[in-house]
Design a protein that fits this description.
Layout (H helix, E strand, L loop, with lengths): L2 H22 L5 H8 L7 H24 L1 H20 L4 H18 L2 H9 L2 H32 L4 H4 L1 H12 L15 H16 L7 H19 L15 H17 L6 H7 L5 H6 L2 H21 L1 H20 L7 H28 L6 H29 L3 H22 L8 H5 L2
């Protein structure tokens, strides 16, 4: 790996690390922040603002990178994230914190698609699996570091350092990006501003349904109507923000759909497994969190060889195997009971990690390889968008099912049964995926 590639890898890994850490670092510290700033009614919005902004902007950032290049958009995202982090650190009220978290989420939305997009520009398919494994390692590291860092900052410094720590990391990420010589030649075109607004507002309304307690039906209807309007508007554009032409490739369409349904089914279970271990198995917060490392172990184990397997076996068989493993993890979750402890859950999470490691890596590579260079950004980021939407909706449904039970275990069984049933649909959808494009990729 030459110096330029090494530096850009350093930049995107650091950016991914801080963006992923800030997704969850406030989980353990938010009660203290809300008490100091006041305004506990806005408690949930400190998380929702970040999640909604980052989810909406990811596909838009991917499309803009096709038009203007990766480096500029990635650097812009880092700068916005840096400014948002600084403002969060000096926030004096909860409304200010929510607004600044939204700005931080906008920066994250511009940052998070680029590790996969830039890796797709720089590395062959055989090597991309290893690179994806490195990115997975950053997510795993952030899952361990986030609650620990949050607790340490509150204990020895101030909760404000949760955000201040991002500043030097962002600066290093920017400096290591400067020498990068971009290999992608952008295809400049007019920006579809109206399409971007329709898409952004429509998805915002849909995501608000997952965090609001009232007017859900109104927001859902408005969101759906805006997205329908967006679809017909995009059909008439010469340079749409989301090119509908990519959906003419049925393989990509089914990969997007499978990514959405798979994460809708079971990705959200990682949010509730620690609750089970703490409530039923009597484990500490630390050990219940350590159980989730099983997912990271399985994810990395599958990501490393996935690039070579694609060239040898194609997409279809690998996605069928991945969804079979996902279905198996769903069965293990349905069988979960009070007598199961740490090791049962750890093995279960390894199986789920193997599934998502294969599905995510093959999905990202497929989204890149089955489109032209000038659509690689939007295709990659749209696949990630589908997974994020599946996660957001899945976690919300599972939370409602958990609260619907007469007992804690009753609610746990409800939400895991939901995940298992949806995983069946994910498994079936994999059989509609074709193997087209493999010979082209071998020459890439």
């Amino acid at each position: 790996m030459n110096k330029s590639r090494l530096l850009v890898m350093c930049s995107i890994v650091l950016a991914m690390l801080i963006a992923s850490i800030d997704t969850t670092i406030m989980n353990t510290t938010m009660p203290i922040i809300a008490e100091e700033l006041g305004g506990t009614a806005l408690y949930a919005w400190s998380f929702a603002a970040y999640m909604i902004a980052s989810t909406i902007l990811s596909p838009i950032a991917g499309r803009l990178s096709d038009l203007f290049g990766r480096k500029k958009l990635f650097a812009f995202g880092i700068i916005v994230f840096l400014i948002g982090s600084l403002l969060c650190g000096i926030a004096a009220t909860m409304p200010q914190l929510v607004i600044f978290r939204a700005l931080q989420g906008m920066g994250a939305g511009f940052m998070m698609p680029f590790p996969a997009i830039i890796a797709g520009d720089l590395f062959s398919i055989e090597k991309r699996g290893k690179i994806q494994a490195l990115f997975t390692g950053m997510w795993a590291l952030s899952a361990v570091l986030a609650p620990t860092l949050g607790s340490l900052f509150v204990e020895f410094l101030s909760w404000r350092w949760i955000f201040y720590i991002n500043l030097p990391v962002c600066i290093i990420a920017l400096l290591t990006l400067i020498p990068y010589k971009e290999v992608y030649q952008p295809k400049k075109a007019q920006v579809d501003y109206i399409g971007a607004v329709l898409f952004g507002v429509g998805i915002t309304c849909v995501l608000l349904v997952t965090v609001l307690e009232s007017y859900l039906f109104i927001f859902a209807i408005v969101g759906i109507l805006l997205l329908i309007t967006f679809y017909f508007f995009e059909k008439r554009q010469s340079s749409p923000i989301v090119p509908l032409s990519i959906f003419k490739n049925k393989t990509i369409t089914w990969i997007f759909l499978n990514g959405f349904v798979g994460t809708l089914a079971l990705f959200g279970t990682a949010s509730y497994i620690p609750l089970f271990l703490q409530n039923q198995a009597g484990l500490s917060v630390l050990w219940s969190g350590v159980s989730l490392l099983g997912m990271s172990v399985g994810w990395m184990a599958m990501s490393v060889p996935a690039g070579k397997w694609i060239l040898k076996y194609g997409y279809r068989i690998l996605l069928i195997i991945g969804n079979t493993l996902l279905l198996l993890s769903g069965i293990l979750l349905v069988l979960l009971n009070e007598s199961n402890g740490f090791w049962y859950v750890f093995i279960l999470m390894i199986v789920q990690g193997l599934a998502f490691g294969l599905l995510s890596t093959v999905g990202v590579i497929g989204a890149q390889a089955l489109v032209g260079n000038h659509e690689k950004g939007i295709s990659t980021s749209f696949f990630m968008f589908c997974r994020n939407m599946g996660t957001a909706i899945g976690v919300t449904i599972m939370g409602s099912l958990l609260n619907s039970g007469t007992t804690f275990m009753d609610g746990i069984h409800h939400l895991f049964l939901f995940g298992f049933i949806v995983s069946i649909f994910a498994f079936l959808s994999a059989f509609f995926i074709r193997n087209e494009g493999t010979l082209i990729e071998k020459r890439a």
